[in-house]
Amino acid sequence: MSSKTVAVIEGDDAAPEAVAPTINLVRSLDLDIDFTYPIVGEPAIEQFGTPLPEEAKAMIDDADTTFFGSTSGSSGVALLYLRWGKVTYANVRPSKYFPGAPSALAKPEGIDFIIVRENLEDLYLRTEGHLQDLSNLGLVSKTSRKPLAELGEGRYAIKAITRDGSERVLRFAFELARTRRHKLTVTSKYNMLPETDGYFLEIAKELAQEYDDVEMNHYIVDDFACRLVANPHQFDVTVMPNLYGDILSDAAAGLVGGLGLAASGCYGDDYAYFESAHGTAPDIAGQNIINPTANLLTAAMMLNYLDFSSAAERLNKAITKVYASGDVLTPDVGGTASTNEMCDAVRAAF
Question: Which pTM does this prediction carry?
């Protein structure tokens, strides 16, 4: 196997406190991986006058993948480049319960499903403005029957669901389902938004004819949300437009122990980057208590992507052992350990 290169961007606030020991743990596995550190955000502004200099872009482009710590500031421009610039259209958010983790459910054992979130379009085009700017288009609300010009002062946002964008993420989800239990659930608000969310479902049904070895079902998104809480065990791979995926994947994390366990990877046809989903946790920055599990699980996803599947499996098993023992957990999951102590415990569990 040829050497792999990982670009590491540690992120903001408490994020670097979880990223650094995670990368140190991966280094300790003695894999053929080189790590590079593009300068982005405030340090890049100070040194180069821009938050994402060409040198940083080149390091990202030359790497096999990027491991990204959460952002809350100017380093976010690198995230935009990794997502829209590298066309990483499928956000994969696993939700798996580790015995020993806290859960609001009485019987969380056995929860193991994945939310595939379309990552580039829907309302995240961020095309918004004043309603009055649309007054000359003659558009009429299909619910109130009033012209938009008569609705009064307000704002609008464009929701776009395209065939190309939907087909590629749906195809990704079908292929992922083939590696698991051959079961796929599609959800959107297709009853109220037939031209957009209904289009997403229509394309899914077309693809289901091609993937006839995968059992596909579908639910309206509010019904899906109820089923997700009431019986998450029924789901395997689920796929949905961007906004629903963003919201429901965080809700799903709450079923298995919280955002401290929320791993995430964003995949395109030619590139992928990996970023835990817990945010930057500014309230605990500098305390060395941020839960590293999300980063560790995200690192395991990255190792699988880089074809180090054996190391990824060992890492997942070590995390499982640490939660099962319950002796070295961070405060958010009921323990008193520091971030570094928990990472050390995972390393010792290999």
Answer: 0.95
The contacts of residue 322 (CB under 8 Å, 6+ apart) are: 328, 329, 342, 345, 346, 349
Domains of the chain by start residue, with CATH: 1-102+257-350 (3.40.718.10), 103-113+163-240+248-255 (no CATH), 123-158 (no CATH)
* Contact criterion met (CB below 8 Å) for 294 and 260: yes
Nearest Cα neighbor of 295 from 78, 72, 67, 119 is 67
Answer whether residue 253 shows pLDDT above 70.
yes
Residues forming a β-bridge with 92: 116, 265
Contacts of 114 (CB under 8 A, 6+ apart): 92, 93, 94, 95, 176, 180, 236, 237, 238
Distance CA 296, CA 287 (A): 19
Task: Supply the mean pLDDT for the chain.
Answer: 95
Q: Judging by DSSP bridges, how do beta strands 265-267 and 215-220 pair with one another?
A: unpaired
Helices (runs of H) and strands (runs of E) counted in the chain? 11, 12
Residue 62 or residue 150, greater confidence = 62
| Rounded Cα distance, 12 and 232, in Å | 33
Which are the contacts of 346, defined by CB distance < 8 A and separation ≥ 6? Answer: 25, 292, 296, 315, 318, 319, 322
CB 236 within 8 A of CB 113: yes
Give me the percent of the chain exceeding a pLDDT of 90.
Answer: 89
Instruction: Report the chain's C-alpha Rg in angstroms.
Output: 21
CA 244-110-267 angle, to 5 degrees, is: 40
